[in-house]
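Complex 250.
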Amino acid sequence: MLWKNAIATRQIWQKLRRSQKQLFIWGLAIVTGLLVVLSSTGFSWAKPPPVLTINQSHPLPYTLKSWQDSTNSGDYFEQVKLTEVGYLVWSQFPVKVYIDNTQVQTWLQVKAAVKEWSSYLPLQIVGQKEIADIVITFKSPPLRTTNLLRARSALTRYELYTKKVSNSTSVLAHRCTIILSPNQPSKYIKAAALHELGHALGIWGHSTATSDALYFSQVTNPPSLSPRDINTLKRIYQQPTRLGWQVASQ
Ligand SMILES: [Zn+2]
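Predicted structure with zinc ion bound:
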């Protein structure tokens, strides 16, 4: 068990170091002040590892608290993957979204997707990329190799960092980047943004039902958010996470 914890902590630490490097490259302020703690792990650390103090749930945002599914449609929570820091839950609202696109029609399509999700989680479109929690950008996502080489139409990734919330306090935080392919019919842009925003808001997995926005593949007539999408989101926000909790400082 200790060994498992040590591995998990090492992975988190490596990821943090990587993201700090990235943040440095991007010229953003980063906060150090990470503390040690796992003793007798057998690893040698280049720097003291972080101690992620707790792994617990945050209070449900009011928007999800008030959500009731009158259709009893169920959810696909079992498809959601646990990350090395727990569930990818936001705890500071509104979550700030930056749309990196100047083409009006495209911008409006993405805005419509943000608006749809904002009924369930407070979101705010911001004009500065530097302060955004989620950046939505347009370029060709990397190719993926399976049996065939095929182009992805979108992807979402997250990275971890420590965020200073006062002179003496830092919390473990994450930020997401959504990459949407500009080479797709406009009717799919909103659907792709809706789907990827679902990942960025915490649904780190896919539905197997075509009627859900988080269905794993593109469909001819993309759906809006379904009760199952929201039921899944609500369950995720009731789960424990290390995100948003204080990282002990030196
Ligand atoms: Zn997906």
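Residues 31 and 162 are 6 Å apart (CA to CA).
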